C-alpha cells in the first residue's frame, strides 16, 4: 500500500508434490546454529529434478489496493482479509480440477 502497487491473488496447486524434503532434527539444529536454512530435497531419481506431476496455477483479479503512504493496522488487516478471502475462493473454486485436492481444505493462519 505504501508503494501504490496492486496485489494479484495466486494459488499454485501441486507444488508440494514435485519435490520431497528431508525433515530431521539435525538439519534444523544446523540451520539454527548457522542462521541459514540447510535443506535436503529431491525429486525424480532422488535428484533435485521435479517429479512429473500436474501443476495448476490459478489467479484472481487485482485487489485494487489503494495507495496509502502510512497505512494503519486496520488498513492492513482489511486488505489482508480481502486477500485471504480471494485466495480461499480461488482454492475452493479450482480444487476439483486435481483429484488429489478434491477433498482438501485450505488453512491460512
Which properties best describe this structure?
109 residues; 11% strand; two-stranded antiparallel sheet; alpha+beta; single chain
> Which structural class matches the secondary elements?
alpha+beta
Number of strand elements: 4
Distance between the termini: 21 Å
Placed side by side, the strands forming the largest sheet appear as 1-4
Helix run count: 2
Seen as an oligomer or otherwise, the chain set is single chain
User: Fraction of residues in helices?
Assistant: 25-40%
Q: What is the molecular shape?
A: extended
Question: Which H/E pattern describes the elements?
Answer: EEHEEH
Low-pLDDT parts are none
What average pLDDT do the residues reach?
Answer: 93
Main β-sheet: number of strands, strand sense, barrel status? 2 strands, antiparallel
From the alpha-carbon coordinates, what is the Rg to the nearest angstrom? 18 Å
User: How much of the sequence is in beta strands?
Assistant: 5-15%
